[in-house]
TrEMBL record:
Keyword Transmembrane helix part of the UniProt annotation: yes
Domain of life: Bacteria
Membrane-spanning parts: 7-33, 39-58, 79-96, 102-120
Keywords on record: Membrane, Transmembrane, Transmembrane helix
Name of the protein in question: Uncharacterized protein
Length: 132
């Protein structure tokens, strides 16, 4: 029951971001082509996609750490980097979405509090590994 609840929270909070990230991955070859054609304006969306992919990887590792605490597959320092990059990508998407629609901005902001909550739940793992 606990794992089902976690998955529902993750789907609701990360669903819109996952859709936007999927579109970013689909359009990333066009951004790379434009980047090589010396259009630096495409660098920001491409970096958002890369940071978002690393953030989703970190969120997957954090969810596994929450559900299976004795199964640690990602070192805590690397996990902190992944989660930080994901939060930066989500915050950037929130700022861009705020210019279009405030509901979209709220949907893009939802992964940040969920990440903070799960990081707080696993604070002992981060504390004993990072501080030692």
């Amino acid at each position: 029951m606990k794992s089902i609840l976690y998955f529902v929270v993750l789907i609701v909070s990360f669903g819109p971001s996952a859709i936007l990230l999927t579109l970013g991955v689909i359009f990333s070859p066009a951004w790379l082509y434009s980047l090589f054609e010396s259009q630096m304006a495409t660098l920001v969306p491409f970096l958002m996609v890369v940071a978002g992919l690393l953030g989703f990887w970190g969120m997957h590792a954090l969810n596994n750490l929450t559900l299976y605490p004795y199964k640690t597959d990602t070192p805590p320092k690397r996990l902190i980097v992944y989660l930080s990059l994901g939060c930066i990508a989500s915050l950037t998407a929130t700022i861009f979405a705020a210019y279009m629609d405030w509901l979209l901005a709220i949907a893009m902001f939802l992964p940040i509090p969920v990440t903070a909550c799960l990081t707080y739940r696993n604070r002992a793992y981060f504390h004993k590994q990072v501080c030692s």
